[in-house]
Description:
Layout: E1 3-9, E2 13-19, E3 25-32, E4 46-47, H1 49-60, H2 65-68, E5 71-78, E6 84-86, E7 101-102, H3 114-122, H4 132-142, H5 144-147, E8 152-154, H6 156-165, E9 171-172, H7 174-179, E10 183-184, E11 189-190, H8 192-197, E12 207-208, E13 214-217, H9 220-226, E14 233-235, E15 238-239, H10 240-248, E16 255-260, E17 264-270, E18 284-288, E19 294-300, H11 304-320, H12 328-345, E20 352-354, E21 369-371, H13 380-398, H14 401-405, E22 409-413, H15 415-418, H16 421-431, E23 435-437, H17 443-454
Parallel strand pairs: 1-5, 5-15, 9-12, 16-22, 22-23
Antiparallel strand pairs: 1-2, 2-3, 4-7, 6-8, 10-11, 13-14, 16-17, 17-19, 18-19, 20-21
Helix pairs in contact: 10-17, 11-12, 12-13, 12-16, 13-16
Amino acid sequence: MNYFLGIDVGTSKIAAVLLDSSFNLVEKAIEPTGAELDLADAYFDEQNTEAIWQALLRCVNKLSKEKRERVLALGLTGQMHGVCLWKRESVGRSSPLVSNLITWQDRRCLKDGFIEELQSLTGESTLSTGFGCATLAWFKRNNPALLKDFDAASTIHDFIAARLCGSTKSFTDPTDAASWGLFDIYSKEWQREKIEMLGIEAKFLPEVLPTGSVCGELRKDMADLLGLKNGIPVTLPIGDNQASILATVEDPKKDISLTIGTGSQLSLVVESKDEIPKTLAPSVDVRPYLGDSYALVAASLVGGSAIKWLAEFIEKTAVILNAPSFSKEELYSLIDNLGKKAFREEPYCKLEVIPTFLGERHKPDALGEIKNIGMKDFTLENLSYKTAFGLLKNLKEMFPEDLLKKRGRIIGSGNGIRKLSLIQELVPYVFQLPLKILPETEEAAKGAAILSAKGQK
C-alpha cells in the first residue's frame, strides 16, 4: 500500500499524517516546536525558524519507517499571515540564512498608529497587524538594515517547501498570498502599486502559483533526513484554514465548517465569485479556495482561549481563598459540567458574556464584557455556560444570517469542540443546525495530504 504525507506547521506544534489512497487516516504524529521567543517588547511575537525545522524532522520521523518509504507525495500547510525572510542562495545549505518567523499573533503594527497609517495609505481597511505585507512595511520603516540581509520572504511553510526542494525561488499559492494582505483574490495577483506605496521591494513578493501545484521534488539529503523516497513531488503549501476545510467539508453546498482551537473559525464554500454577496460585514473574510471557488470565513481571535481565561480565573481565585488546587483537566471538566447544568436548567439566563478579550481583527480595540448581572445569576455555573455561549454567538453574529440559513449542518472540528461536551450541546442551540463532529484530529495536515494526493491523480 502507498501513502500520502501531510505536514501542518502550526503555531505551537508540528503535525504529520499519513493517508491511504482513499484518504483514510493511517497514522499521525505530533511534536511541540518550543520555538516561541521571549522578547522584551510584548507587542512582538516571533519564533525560531530552526527550532520549527528541527521539530518537523522529529515529528515526521515518529511515523512508521516502513510507511514513510512508501509515501508517493508530500503536502504542507501551516500558520497563515506570518512571514520569515531568507537568502535564496543559502536555501540548499544545512543551515540556511533565515530570519525569525514573525507570526500572525504579532502586534507591532498596532504601535503608534502604524496599521491605521497603512490602511489609510492603501485604502485597505482589512490590512491587519500580523499580516505579511504589514510586517514587511514595518521593517522597511523601523529596521531597514535587517531587510538588506535577505532577498526573499514567505510564510514559514513556503520556506520549508523551498528548503525541502532546494529551490532558490520563492513560491506561494493564492490562499497564503491573500493572508498577507494586498493581494487581489479575484485576479490572483499582488496589488503591486499599493505594495510599492509601502516601500516593499518586489523581490520580497513570492511568485503566486495555482493551489495544488507541485513546487518541486524532494532533494536526496532531505529525503534521507525524513526517511522518504528521493524525488517524490512536494505540493505547494496551502493555508491552514483552507486545508482544514478541504479535510472536513464533505458537501461544499451543504456544510458549514466550525473549528474551535485557540481561536475559532466559521467557514463555508461558494463555487464562484458570483455567489459572494455584494455587501459583506468587515468581520467576514473572502479567501481563495480551490480553483475558482472561495471560502467565506468569520475568524475570531477567541475560541478555546475564552475557556482557558475562565479556568485561569478559577485557579487564581482558589489560590486567594487557600482552596485545594485543581489540575488543568479538573478545571476544564468542572467548567464543562457546570456549564451544561446551567444550560439545561436555565437556558434563558439573562447574564451575558462577550468574550472578545483579545479584540478582533476587524475591531482590534474591542474588549470583553460581562453584563446583565442580577442578584442571583452571577454564578460559576452561569459564567461557564455563558462564556461558551458567548464565543459561539460572537462567531454567528459575524456571519450574514441568510448565508447560514441556506446550509444544512455544521461540521465541527478542533479540540474546543471535541473535548467540551458543553460546546457540543450549544452549537445546535445557537446555530439551529445539526452538528456532526469529526472523530479525527489534525485536519489541516490531513487537508495538505489530500491536496498532494489529488495532484497525483
